[in-house]
Amino acid sequence: MRKKIHKILVTGGAGFIGSAFVRLLLKGGADVNENLPELAVVDKLTYAGDLARLQGVEGKYKFYKTDICDKKSIGAIFNKEKPDILVNFAAETHVDRSINDASAFIETNIRGVHILLEASRRYKIKRFYQISTDEVYGDIMQGGFNEASPLKPNSPYAASKAAADLLIKSYIRTYNFPAVILRPCNNYGPWQYPEKLISVIINNAINSRRVPVYAKGWNVREWIYVTDCVEAIFLLLNKAKAGEIYNIGSGHHEKNIDVVKQALRILKKPFGLIEFVKDRPGHDFRYSLDSSKIKKLGWRPKVDFLSGLQNTVAWSIANYGWLLDKEK
Ligand SMILES: NC(=O)c1ccc[n+]([C@@H]2O[C@H](COP(=O)([O-])OP(=O)(O)OC[C@H]3O[C@@H](n4cnc5c(N)ncnc54)[C@H](O)[C@@H]3O)[C@@H](O)[C@H]2O)c1
C-alpha cells in the first residue's frame, strides 16, 4: 500500500485549472514524493466553479463548499485537515467582469489571499503555492518578462492579482514564509467557462452564432494547454524553492484573430461568423513570458497549439450541453 505523506489543500479546485490539477493529481499524474497525496478541496462554487469538472475522481478528495474570505471556516478547515501544502487557484478571473465591477476581485483575490496566508502562517504550512498570472506584468511589445520584471498590471483583475503577489512577497521577507508564486500564461482546454476567448469562440461557432473579436483581433496572447500548465505546477511541487517566483509560459504566441480562424477551420465554420467589436478598455496588447527558469528545472510543454485546440473543440462538441448550460 502507498504511504500518504502529503496533505494538500487545494483552494479553487472546482474551477477550470484547479479541477485539472485535482483530476490529474488523483489519477497519479504527479510524482509528489512518489506517493499519492491526501487531498482536500475548498471552493465557494461561484458561477465559475462546478463540481462536474471533478467527475471521475469523486470520493477521492474531501470537499468544503467554503469562501476563502470566511476566516472562521478557513481556520476550522486548517485545524481539521492540517495540510502540509496549500495550492491556491481560488480567484475571480475574468477581466471584463473586473472592468464592470472590481469589488469581488478585491475581496477574493486580495482579502481572501490574506486570510489564507494568515491561516497558513498560524498552522505552519510547509509550502504555500499561489497561482498568479502573466497579466501582473502588463503588456510587452517584444521579448518576454522574466520573474524580476516590475509589476505593471493594467486591468482591475491584474491589479488584484499583483496586489496578492506583493502581499505574499512581504510575508516571504517579513516572516520567512514558505510561499512560491507561479505565473502562468493564458490557459485553454476542456472545462473552461465559456466567457474566456477560446471557449467563447468554440461555443459560439458550434452554435453558428457570431464570434466577437475585440478591435481588429491583433492582440497577442501566449497560450498553454491546461494539462501542460498543471504538469508545470506538479514539477514545482517537488522542485520549487521557497520564496521564489516561476513563470509558466509555453512560448507559443498567437494573435486573437488567428486563434479564431484556426478554431473556425477545425469546426468547418465560415469566417463570416467573425464580428469585430469595440475594444476592451485598457486592453493589454501582447503578453509574453521568459520561462527559462522553469525550463532549467526540466519542464517543457508537450501539447502543441493546434493539437490542443483540436482536443478542446472535440471536448466541446462532446460536452455541448455543459457549455450551453453555463449560458443560462
Ligand atoms: N485561466 C487562465 O488562463 C489563467 C492564466 C493565468 C493564471 N490564472 C489563475 O489561475 C487560477 C485559476 O484560474 P481558472 O481559470 O481556473 O479560474 P476559474 O474562474 O475557472 O476558477 C476559479 C475558481 O475559484 C472559485 N472561487 C472564486 N472565488 C472564491 C472564493 N472567494 N472562495 C473560494 N473559491 C472561490 C470559483 O468557484 C472557481 O471554482 C486563478 O487564480 C487565475 O488568476 C488563470
Question: Can you walk me through this structure?
Answer:
The chain has 328 residues and is α/β, with parallel strands linked by helices. The protein has a domain at 7-189 and 226-251 and 286-302: Rossmann fold (3-Layer(aba) Sandwich), CATH 3.40.50.720. Helix content is 39%, strand content 16%. It contains eleven helices and twelve strands. Strands 3-2-1-4-5-6-10 form a seven-stranded parallel beta sheet, sandwiched between helices. Helix 4 packs parallel to helix 5 (156-175) and helix 6 runs parallel beside helix 8 (256-267). The longest helix is centred in the middle third of the chain and has 20 residues, at 103-122. The radius of gyration is 19 Å and the shape is globular. The termini are far apart. Bound molecules: nicotinamide-adenine-dinucleotide (NAD). Nicotinamide-adenine-dinucleotide binds at residues 11-12, 14-18, 43-46, 48-49, 67-69, 89-93, 108, 112, 131, 133, 161, 184, 186-187, 193.
Compose a concise summary of this entry.
The chain contains eleven helices and twelve strands.
Keywords summarizing the entry:
12 strands, alpha/beta, 328 residues, seven-stranded parallel beta sheet, 16% strand, three-stranded mixed beta sheet, Rossmann fold, globular, binds nicotinamide-adenine-dinucleotide
